[in-house]
Each structure stands twice: as C-alpha cells, then as structure tokens.
Amino acid sequence: MLPALSRVAVCGGTHGNELSGVYLVHERLKRRKKSQVMEPVAVVTVMSNPRAVQRCVRYTETDLNRCFTHAMLSLSASEQTSYELVRSQELNSLLGPKGSAEAMDLICDLHNTTANMGLCLITYSDSDWICLHICKYLQARAQHPRTDVRYIHYDIPRSEAYSLDSVGKHGFAMEIGPQPHGLIRANIFMAMQEAVQLLLDWVRLFNSGAQFEGGSVDVYTLVKNIDYPRDPHTHTIIAAVHPDLQDRDFCLLHPGDPMFLSFSGETLRYKGKEPLYPFFINESAYYEKAVALSLARRRKVEIPAIRSSRM
Amino acid sequence: MLKDSLQSNVSACVSLQWRRMKPLISLNMELITLPALHRMAVCGGTHGNEMSGVFLVPELERQRKEKGDAIWPIPLTTVLSNPQAIKECKRYVDKDLNRCFTSAILSSPITDSTPYEVRRAQELNTLLGPKQTNDAIDMICDLHNTTANMGLSIICYSHTNWICLHIFKYLQAKITTVPVRLVLLNIPIGDAYSLESVSKYGISLEVGPQPQGVVRADIFNAMKEGVNAVLDWVKNFNSGEVIEGGDVEAFMFKKTVDYPRDPETKTPIAAVHPQLQDRDFCLLKRGDPMFLTFSGETVRYEEEEPLHPVFINEAAYYEKGIAFHLAQKQPWTIPSIQAKKV
C-alpha cells in the first residue's frame, strides 16, 4: 500500500537542445491554453531552462541537471554565480522543496541522447516500487512505435543526487535516443509522447485504487564511466568508439572486446575483468565530462504488488 | 546556344533538348588540357562541431610528422578553419564562417564590431587565396558533417568545374562503403559564400549522418577514405595521364522547404515525416508525406514537379528556416582531361 500520487510534474528543456521534451512541453502548454482540459491527475508542465531552450544549447553557463544536490540548492544568493544555479532554486521552490512533504509526488524529466538507448528511466533507487512498476507498465505497452524500455539505477544517496528528478518524492529522467541534439525526429517524438501518456494513464489507474501485480524488472546499475583515450600532452581525444561497439548500448561487453578505434587505425580493447553492459555510448554532451560510455551490472529485481491507499 | 541552355533554369523541356543534343556534344567534346595542380589544402572545423574534420586534420599532420611530406602527391596545407568554434564545440561563435567568403564580405573593412568569423574569413583568404586571383591555392577540400543521411556528398559550385566533376566520378567508382553523390550549387563564383570557393577548384566533402559534437568511427573512416581518394586522383591527374570523360549524375539545388511554423511564435509545429526522414536523394512526388505535426497530422508535398530532397533534417538549418533542400537530378557528360606538362 502506497500513498496516491496527487501531484505530478512533467519537465522538458532541462537541456535546451534536447528537443523532444521541449516540443512535448510546448504542445502540452498549448493544448491546456486552448481547451482548458481537466486531466484526471493534476499535472504541472514545466519548461525547465527557458534561456537554454531559446538559444537551443544544452545550458548557458552551468549544466542545470547537475544543480540539484542539497548543497547547491542551499547556496546563498551571492553564491549563485550562474543562471542555472538561480534557476535550480526556482525549480526547487516550484516542485520541491527537495526532501520535504510539499515536494511533487512524481517528477518525470524528459531528455534525449545521441546514444542508441531506446527509452530509459534513470533514477537513484533500485527499490522505488512506483518507478519500477511504471517501467514494467511501459515495457508491456510502448508499441507505437515499438520501443525498448529499460531501467537504469545510479547508486547515489538522495542528498547528493544532482538531477531535477531528485526533487520529487519519486522521480526519474525519461531518456530517449538516438537523436542528435538540436533537431527533432518524428519517431522519437512519438515514442516520448506515447510514453508520457502511458505514464499518466498508470498514475490515474494507480490513484483510482487499481492493484498492480508484482513481478520482476531488469535493473542496470552504473558501475563506472570510461573516458576516451587522450593524448598525454594535449589531452585531446585520439580515438572514437569502435564501430563494433557504436550503437550497441546494452549489448554485453566482454573483456578483450573492441572499445575504441584510434584515428590512426588501431583497435583498443576493454581491459576490465568483468563483463558489463555499456550505455550512453558516444553521447555528445559527455565529451566535456570525459565519458565515452558508461558500464552497468544487470540484475533482476523482484517487485511486490502495489496499490494506492485510499485517502 | 549550348551555353545558354546549360545556364538557364532547367525545366523538363530543356533537359529533354539536352538529352537529344548529347550525341552531338560527345563528338564535339575535345580532350581538355588543364594546368597540373601545384598546391592544395584540406580544411576541417569550418563548423566547430562537425567532428570528422576536426579530428582528421590533426591526424593528417601526425602522418606528415611520422612519414614526411612525400606521402602526398603535392604540397598539402592542413587548416583548422575556425579554432574558436572548435574550442567551444559550436558551429560558430558570432556568424557562420562558411557564409563569409563572398567577394563583398572578403573585401569589407574591419572595425571593432566586425564578427570573429569575418576576420577569420579574411585571414583564410590571405592564407589560401586571394579568391579569384592567380595566387589562390589550386584546391581546397573542405570537410563537413551533416545530421542528414547523405552518405558522402561532394558539393561544388559549377557544372563546368571539370576537376571537381572528375573527382566525383573517381570517388563514386572507388568508394564502396558509403553511397557517393554529387551536389551542384549553380552560383557565380563572386557570390559563392563558402570556404572552398577561395581556391581555383574547390570541393566540400559532406559526410553524414553524424550528430554535431560527436565523432563516429564509421563516419570518420568514410571521410578519411574520401580524402585519400581525392589525393590519389590528384596524383593520377598530375602524372599527365588522360582521365577519361563520361557521364555523371548531379543533384542541382532548386529550392528549400521550411518547417510548418506557428504564425505567432514562429516555432516549428511539425517534424519531418517518418516516411521521409533519412531518405535523402529519394524522389519526392506529389502526395508523398513531408511532415508530421506534433498533433499527428500529415502534411504532403503538393507541387507537380517531382524533386529530390537533400539535407533532410540538418540540425544547423533550423535557424536558417530549412527543413530540406529540393534538387533536380541532372545528367552531365564531362570531357576527358589531361594535366598540361609545365
């Protein structure tokens, strides 16, 4: 038995050049203006970083989606040295405060990636039954177009969790790729639109007292990030993700498998001891964060049946 | 009369005339002698977030350091065109560098408020030009990427640029890993706005699809293969052998199509239709789907004339009001050429 989710937020444009979320938020705000539709669930629709959206850049000064740790949300006005640091506190007032009883019940933050990841729900917990059940529901129903749905877990305590979705009591980033930044692909937009609709359907059903049967969900937990090989003096990248690994997110990487192909033609191989699952392979925004790909362990998590406690 | 029909707007009627005249022209096409190529440049990072060129230029320099200049058939200058944009991994800082090479902009006075790229264009014109003079470098090969599914496309300004058309013919025969196509922009050289127009025989190599800010190994390799093939061709040409003419097919830009937009906010209200997305160079006929609005409606191509869409969904063109270009497929017969021994 879990409390109903009475307040839900759908956020887009947290990165201003990830356009599926930007246009989805536009459309939702436009439809609300036009028809005053009363949705069965109170949904707050937010354009997270309007300035970055207007310029069609990931961020203007600081990556907004790294500004939601407790420490950064507690900075004084004089310490908020960028637009995004100010904006993160505004969003925390609107959708939080993080960690308090007033925070949104559920935040769904919309993102795109250049990596071939299908649809992923990315969150900080591997035992949040709400998020896991939502994942299970989407996996069964995301068909138009047919989309692979996976659950990614970053094992970080809530206070250090740095992304917007951590402001809500429950939350996840809904990440869809592959899509280049700064453009919109119709099939990716439709997949995100359907997923958001399914999410809101699930919330409505949950709130109405429906029981969701237990089962199991594969959870990918981040183990480590791998950087590009770099020139020791200039620090510039000297290799690209190997063609045998490019676009093969969630295909098991074994020790000895090709990982990088240098610009001069040499293959560099995975030197780890443990086979792991790669994801965020060749995400353009991660070059500056020194991440060529992330590696995860996969395990099955058993989830109980859940039902909302009637108010 | 032939020259007029080549330069006029091509209509179905004119191209039929051209096809009828072809046998006559083949008989009259003599062997054309051209000066050998003495110096060339390979430029990358003209757009700072088109990464194949950004990484291929230093790789060429590494090869030069390792094996010496003799690996190339002629003296090769490598250039990172827009260093500031490369540093920031952006297309440009103030203004699109690849629109700054018209004669007008190259001769405009520099003031305190001159955009970074205009200054840089004038520097590059000094280094590789001056444009339209005898001192200009013989060839610039400018490297670009696109988010559109265009394989390896060679872009050049004029259908009478025999060097460029022959390079295309050679690359199309030699390269099998990606489709190779020729895109022609019929713009007089003074109005030509891009970097390669500074040289006597300039071409752009455009390889896609690749997101901006990303380097894909397969796309990088296609670009490397393209540059190596251009260098091979230069070696063959300069050796004095006769390069046989023949038929080539070019896509000539005719017009652009913008996204449907909200009349008040001007923001796009549709995306390229899934049935058109990634289908660059296909034939778009009347009634074919073009766009899918965010509310689910299909917008169709209404024109009579079937044309070929190119640069479908190029991220950098959203701000230029372009969803895709439409091109006409045009056959050309190119003469045999031979380098003049000096």
TrEMBL record, chain A:
From the UniProt record, list the reaction(s) this protein catalyses: an N-acetyl-L-cysteine-S-conjugate + H2O = an S-substituted L-cysteine + acetate; an N-acyl-aromatic L-alpha-amino acid + H2O = an aromatic L-alpha-amino acid + a carboxylate
Q: Which residues form the Succinylglutamate desuccinylase/Aspartoacylase catalytic domain?
A: 6-201
**TM regions (residue ranges):** none
Keyword Cell membrane among record annotations: yes
- AstE/AspA barrel-sandwich hybrid domain location is 216-297
Enzyme Commission number, as recorded: 3.5.1.114
- One cellular component term from this protein's GO annotations in UniProt: cytosol
Cofactor binding remark = Binds 1 zinc ion per subunit.
Q: Where in the cell is it found?
A: Apical cell membrane; Cytoplasm
Q: Where does Zn(2+) bind?
A: H15, E18, H111
Q: What cofactor requirement does the entry state? A: Zn(2+)
Q: How does it sit in the membrane?
A: Peripheral membrane protein
User: Where is it mostly found?
Assistant: membrane
Sorted alphabetically, which InterPro entries does this protein's record hold? AspA/AstE_fam (IPR050178), Aspartoacylase (IPR016708), AstE_AspA_cat (IPR055438), Aste_AspA_hybrid_dom (IPR007036)
Entry annotation: catalytic residues:
E175
Question: Among its keywords, does the record have Membrane?
Answer: yes
UniProt keyword terms in alphabetical order: Cell membrane, Cytoplasm, Hydrolase, Membrane, Metal-binding, Zinc
Which molecular function term from Gene Ontology is one that the record holds? aminoacylase activity
Pfam families on file: AstE_AspA_cat, AstE_AspA_hybrid
Report the domain of life of the source organism.
Eukaryota
Q: Which family does it belong to?
A: Belongs to the AspA/AstE family. Aspartoacylase subfamily.
Q: What is this protein called?
A: N-acyl-aromatic-L-amino acid amidohydrolase
Q: Which organism is it from?
A: Pygocentrus nattereri (Red-bellied piranha)
